[in-house]
Amino acid sequence: MRLSLVFSLLFLNFLSNAQELKYNSLFINKVLTENANAVVRLDQLDIEILSQQKMIVKNKQVITVLNKLGNRNARNGLGYDSSKKIKSMNIVVYDAVGNEIEKIKKKDFKDVSAVDGFSLYIDYRKLYYNYTPISYPYTIEFNYEYETSDTGSIPSWYFLSGFTVSVEKSHYSIVYADAGQKPVIYEKNLESLEFDKKETNNSITYTAHTIPAMKREGMSPSFQKISPKLMARIPNFHYKGFDASISNWKDMGSWVDNNLLSGRDELSPQTVAKAKALVLGVDNDLEKAKIIYKYVQDNTRYISVQIGIGGLQPISAIEVDKVKYGDCKGLSNYTKALLKEVGVVSYYAVVEAGGDKVDFEDDFADLAQGNHIILAIPYNETYYWVDCTSQILPFGYVGTFTDDRKVMIVKPDGGEIVTTTAYINEDNYQSIKASYELKPDGSISGDTHLVTKGSQYNAHFRLKEKTDEDIIKQFKSRWSSINNLTIVNYSFDNNKNDVVFTENIDLNATNYASLSGDRILFTANAFNNQSIVPDRYRNRKLPFEIQRGFLDEDEFTIQLPENYTIEAIPNAKKIENEFGLYTVSFEHNPDNNSIQYKRSFLLKKGYYPKEKYKEYRNFRKEIASVDNAQIVLLKK
Amino acid sequence: MIQLRAAVLLVLLAISFSGKAQDFKFGKVSKEELQETYNPSDSSAAATVLYRNKSIRFNYNQSMGFSVSTYVFERIKIYDKEGFDYATVSQSLYKNNNDVESISGLKAYTYILENGKVEKNKMEKSAVFTLELNKYRNQQKFTLPKIKEGCVIEYEYKITSPFYYSIDEIALQYDIPIKKQEISIATPEYFSFKANMKGYLNVNPKYGVKSGKIDFTNKSRNNGGWGVTSTTYSNQSIEYKVNTSEYNMTDVPALKEEPFVNDMNNYRSSINYELQYTRFPQQLQENYATTWESVIKKIYESESFGAQLKSSKYFKDDLETLQIATSSPIELMGAIFSHVQGRMNWNNIYGYYVDKGVKTAYKEQTGNIADINLMLTAMLQEAGLCASPVLVSTRSHGVPLSPTREGFNYVIASVEIDGNLILLDATNKYTRPNLLPTRALNWFGKKIQKDGSIVSVNLFPKNLSEERVQLSVDLKENGSITGKVRHANVDYNAYLFRNKYTNSVEDDYLEKLENKNNGMEISDYTIKNKGSIGKPVLESYSFSLDNQADVVGDKIYFSPLFHLAMKENPFKLEEREYPIDFSFPWREKYTVNITIPEGYEITSLPASANMTMVDKIGGFQYQVLDNGTAVQLRVDVKINQAVISANYYNGLKELFKNIVEKQTEKVVLSKITSNGTTESSGKGR
Hints:
The complex is a heterodimer.
Chain A: H1 2-21, H2 30-33, E1 38-51, E2 54-65, E3 77-80, E4 84-94, E5 100-104, E6 110-113, E7 119-122, E8 125-128, E9 138-148, E10 157-158, E11 165-176, E12 184-188, E13 195-200, E14 203-211, H3 223-226, E15 229-233, E16 236-239, E17 242-245, H4 249-261, H5 269-278, H6 285-299, E18 301-302, E19 304-306, H7 317-323, E20 325-326, H8 328-341, E21 347-351, E22 372-379, E23 382-386, E24 406-411, E25 414-419, E26 429-438, E27 444-453, H9 454-460, H10 468-478, E28 485-495, E29 500-509, E30 514-516, E31 519-523, E32 544-546, E33 550-559, E34 564-568, E35 573-577, E36 580-589, E37 594-603, E38 606-608, H11 613-627, E39 630-635
Parallel strand pairs in A: 1-11, 7-19, 18-20, 26-33
Antiparallel strand pairs in A: 1-2, 2-9, 3-8, 4-5, 4-9, 6-8, 10-15, 11-14, 12-15, 13-14, 16-17, 21-22, 21-24, 22-23, 24-25, 26-27, 27-29, 28-29, 30-31, 31-39, 32-38, 33-37, 34-39, 35-36, 36-37
Helix pairs in contact in A: 6-8, 7-8
Chain B: H1 2-20, H2 31-35, E1 47-61, E2 65-78, E3 88-96, E4 99-100, E5 102-114, E6 117-122, E7 128-134, E8 137-143, E9 152-161, E10 170-171, E11 178-188, E12 191-198, E13 206-223, E14 229-252, E15 270-278, E16 286-287, H3 292-301, H4 316-325, H5 329-343, E17 345-346, H6 358-364, E18 366-367, H7 369-382, E19 386-392, E20 410-417, E21 420-424, E22 444-448, E23 454-458, E24 465-475, E25 481-489, H8 492-501, H9 506-516, E26 521-528, E27 537-545, E28 550-552, E29 555-558, E30 580-581, E31 586-595, E32 600-604, E33 609-612, E34 618-626, E35 630-639, E36 643-644, H10 649-664, E37 667-671, H11 674-684
Parallel strand pairs in B: 1-11, 17-18, 24-31
Antiparallel strand pairs in B: 1-2, 2-9, 3-4, 3-8, 5-6, 5-9, 7-8, 10-15, 11-14, 12-15, 13-14, 15-16, 19-20, 19-22, 20-21, 22-23, 24-25, 25-27, 26-27, 28-29, 29-37, 30-36, 31-35, 32-37, 33-34, 34-35
């Protein structure tokens, strides 16, 4: 009896010592500090679902910041709105050995509007505190608890929060009041993660230990795509005043249709008449859709206002019609309403927009997926996609913002996952035809004729909307390797029907070639010089991805100066491998003393393991070298 | 009767006067304005302010005292989609406890031409939002309805502010052109404001004097005889002078972005009204600012500044330790500086007034600029050194041209030892005596000496900060190179290097370095003096790099500076309006020794060159020597001034053009024919 008391006292003593030392940052496992600017000692999220309309979320995050760059990993705030009540929040800071050095209470946090930089108004706010570190490493503990009625927004879980941060312990738990609230949990990229999963009759818990940091590497897939993640949904949830019962995308689509869209497509009789007048005499649905889309583009603009359910629900079509502005939801819904009046069917489509292609998960439906709305117009067994927030995109063209990814379309009988238009390899086309004259003083003058299609169109057609000054600036940066460039003249043609953009540019540049005594040296490839070689990594860890691919074809006629002979000219070259095909040729035509330069470069879309990276880099290196190959002329 | 007639006449005159200006009356948008498709004086403008009126008036209210009201009216033509952003307006409103700025009388309309008729669309209340940005700032935002290309928008509103002692800076120039603007400000004689002008526009204000009147109702209680009290009210009025300034301008060009500018807003033409003193009837004059002396006196007398220099108890023990360990004043200064620099951590807040106070800051080891540098000054003074604070305006804050409190936003320390003034700033971990953070390098600071006198101190560094590169290269027959690099970053180059890289892991840094140099492979990397702030950062390494020469036939062509050659002229625009800001004067020196591949001889070398800009602004030297089997190159580029006036733009552009041209010029090698070999080796024997 006595012994055990002593023992337990000892044990307690040991425990409390351990408690004191637990945030010591000097003995962190080396596996965790490698490639890391910060180590998450503990990230624990406890979610309690009390009813369909009540959820409590508690988070404790303890992060040891190893250096200045790790500061951004130390979370220091939380966003909230009227349906999310922050009940407690505090920060405790510990020095390197684990002594507490500062404590910040909720009242010391700053309360600010969570301005997003583009919305006219947003009702989201943020509580945060900026801690100034006095030495490294230090440990910051951030605790908060909030209560919300939005059980439709159960926080997702990233075991790792980003690149260059590691995790010692990650813990995610959901406790639910009754079996009816048992969440469906979707596991993503968990294959390479060691974790513990425990289920009881009213809880689910995930725990993982010792996750090393990943380093950011060029061309790697987005962090979101490769990192382990959990998403959760309860079958019957509540969101901003609406109840929902959802088990798949079909249900989600119906819910959106019935609650968020229904009745919002009414228009005034005058506007209906106007829409009908616009398509008068047009029978073809696609033609009608083009006319309506153009009308919307010419008469509206994008303005974002986010209040309450406004984050999900569009402003009514009648309101948009009045002020002629709206956000993606409002403008899409307005266009859909106009199309309906002229007898054209279109579907509201929820998409995760961005340069990185992110798919909707086929077998897991929730409200967290998607950040943008576009319209799908079914015609002849295919869908035409339109983005109503743009005043300049061609009809049916979605650029690189929403291309080639799975999205949810809202059909009358429910939601459906569909893939948007893809632009792959040859689709993304650029041709440059040019002829230029090289003069004995090293200057060049000539004209270029550029044609772009597919995703390359996207990168060029906006030029037409720019001011003269910006256009000149863009040409100068496009051809930044040509010093002393002067743009003499330019003209554009934007063929929106076929989605082809044409640029005609007359230019000249002094000192293009370098002179060396009796010699003139110059690069034949003046206008499509791919001198950028992908970064080299001493020890690459991640796979790499070419998301879209492209095909470039170039043909330049170079008029040589009189009284010079060609001393040296590069050989024709062909490089072919799994990444693509590159060919180049130089042909001298003595009759008119000119060189015909032809180049073609096909880069293929693909997803490659890290082992292939070196080979890919060598491919690009070789291309860069051939692109820069010099022709040498010698004075007769 | 005659009097009455005169009054009518006056009224009529007034009407006809305003009638003449009726084009710019709110609501009177003309068809011509709607039909215009581009701005004739700036065809690239996406939008243009057709008319702008801003008038600032002082009001008096018996219960509230003085307040400032600002009337804003703008009429803007939107030519194309790029100009749609101007249809959304945001106005900052300040607040401090119960004192809040407010907006009233907001009206806004969009005008479009619909079938040849002017259609007027009113903005609804639902398009107006107030955001509570933080404790001190609200933002009122609104957006106009039915915006399309070619439309004209108009809005007017009034801001009422209780903060009569501070008037927001008035911009005279926008990012789009302004066709006509009328800006006026009227201040009662009780307030003496000084107008500080900034920017590159010609501004000719018109000054005048008017009269104003305040009506009071006085309540007084009379104790009459026989125990009767009565209250009487009397109306009184005070007449006073009102000083007016008007800024009427036409065709104000848009402010356009240029490279090598530290902050475009520094070049935007604007007026800033600063309160110098108030003098109310029967009250003493209260000074806010007039001369540098009084501005600085005011700052110095504040609890948050001068008083902070007086206490010494909090650092006493630490100071004693430092004093014991040092012998000379210079050493002592260095020790105190390092102590404060090492102990303190800047919280990214600017200001010449302390944030939490030196004592608390010292204890917590963090603070704003004033917390840290005033504490440093106090320690230096306590140690018996002749130390004084120096008020500074940072580079992003602009240049204080005339005495104002708002002209400063920063403070550093200074020490005078043996007649030399040494400037100190302990808010960055990599500064040292006489090397301030680049943010503080801005024209002149004002040193406040113990006796209250003020001395101007030039903040621009005079020394050229050097970057020295020594390269020894073995050129291979296949065009690749291997070699050794010794790279020295001195003074500001070392400061920038340390701020950027000291935190990164060496492997990551090397990867960056390799990729910056076209993917070279680096080995045997060493770095010296990474943490020894007084010394240059010295790096050395071996490297190999492919494709550095063109091998064509039996010839090899290469630029003798290889990957280090400047290939692009940073100055691309034809003209420039604003000064070119390099932060500090600098010098780049390259020494390259190239061993050519065996069996080759040098056929041609670039000619040496030497160029100096007028007024010794900058210069460039390029010298190539040949000793048969090796090429030796020396390159020296100098920019002798931190900030260079736009007058020198063409010269500077020409200098860089020459640098690029020369640095990319090629050396030509040819294979020695068997014939040649015999000949030359024959000669050697």
